[in-house]
Automatic annotation (TrEMBL):
This is Sensory rhodopsin transducer. It comes from Chamaesiphon minutus (strain ATCC 27169 / PCC 6605). It holds the Pfam family ASRT. Gene3D superfamilies: TM1070-like. It comes from the Bacteria.
Amino acid sequence: MNEPIGKICWAIAEGYIPAYSNGPEPQFTSHETVCILNANDRDARIEMTIFYTDRDPVGPYRLLVPARRTSHIRFNDLQDPEPIPLDTDFASVIHSDVPIVVQHTRLDSRQSENALLSTIAYASH
């Protein structure tokens, strides 16, 4: 690409993974997802920190999004340095070594009428 697209620091102020789901797994497992677009010619090395209401932040969670690719990462699947607890409010800050675009998506399947929300994250710089 001629010009980089995106920013290097993003924030998602909202996060919550319901403790239970309704429907077949893994498609209908309630989840939070960070969707990352790396339209650059270089791989994006990403560090994500998780913030909580009542305890210290956890991180960094290290991710790699190859050049000119997208990656949809479920917060439910993050394990290192520790899993994200269910039924707990959280927020996230995402830093990348190249500009990226970040979108946040949630599937809440606690009832048979599923709820899906998606929004672009806050781009800091």
